[in-house]
Amino acid sequence: MPNNFQSTTTLHNGVKMPWLGLGVFKMEDGSEVTESVVAAIKHGYRSIDTAAVYKNEAGVGQAIKQAGIPREDLFITSKVWNGSQGYETTLQAFEESLERLGLDYLDLYLIHWPVPALGKYKETWRAMEKLYKDGKIRAIGVSNFKESHLEDLIKDSEIVPMVNQVEFHPHLTQESLRAYCNEHKIQLEAWSPLKQGKLLDDPTLSAIADKYGKSTAQVILRWDLQSGVVTIPKSVKEHRIVANSDVFDFELTTEEMNTIDGLNKDERVGPDPDEFNRA
Predict the structure, then answer these.
(1) Using one digit for the tens of pLDDT, what is the confidence trace for 39-69?
(2) Residue 12 assigned as binding residue
(3) Is residue 54 annotated as a catalytic residue, yes or no?
(4) Domains with residue ranges and CATH for the chain
(5) What positions does the entry give for substrate binding (predicted)?
C-alpha cells in the first residue's frame, strides 16, 4: 500500500515506478505544459506522462531542463501513436519523441492503442522489445489493451508488457482486466481517473470525502491507489496539482472501497479500444 508521495510500485522487471504522476493530455505545448510540469516537480511529483499525439513533448522536455532535478530521479513516459505503428516506423517515432523531450532514454514507452483494424501492434511490440534490449527504455508497456489484445500480444512476444494504461474510474472499474493484469504481473495504470470531472458531484463519493475532510477527487485517487492502480491525474492549476498529491494521509476502509467499486457502470468517456482505429 503506497503510504507517501515517494512510494513506488516495482514492475515485473524490477524497475520502480511512482504510484502517482502528472498526466499532460490536452495541455498546450509551450508555457502551459512547461509551467504545469515545473510546478508538479517542485511539489514532489517525479512521474510525468506524455505522448507523441499530445504534441507537447517539447514543452515537457523544457520543464525537465528547468526543474533542475537529476534525470535518474524522474520517471518519464511517452507513447507511440497509431499512425506510427509498425516495426521501422516505431523505431523512428521513438527517436523523434526522445529528441523532442531532449532525453537520452525513456523510463516507460507505451503502444497508445491496439488499433485492431491496423493489425500492427505485434510488429510495434517487436520494435519496443528491441529498444528495451538496447537500453533506450527502462520499461515497455501498452495502453488501452483489453484482455483479448493482451493475450494475442503475449502469445507471440518475448517480453510481457510491464504496464497497461487504461481508462479507469469508479464508473469503469475494469475488474476482469485488473484480474488478468495481476495474474500476468502487468501493472495497471489509470488515465482519466476522475472521468474528466464527471464524478466530482457524485453523492456517494462526496459523503466519503466529507468524512475525511477531503475532496471527492482526493477520495477517487486514494481509491485508485488502494486498488493497486497507478494513477496520473491531469491539471494545469498549481493548487490542484498539489491537492491531487495530498492523498497519503488517510485510508479508505474495506467497506468504503467496496462501496466505490459498486458504483461501476462499465461506462467510458473515451473510445472503446476494439473500435478506435484513428491513425
Answers:
(1) 999 999 999 999 999 999 999 999 999 999 9
(2) no
(3) yes
(4) 8-197+228-235 (3.20.20.100)
(5) 112
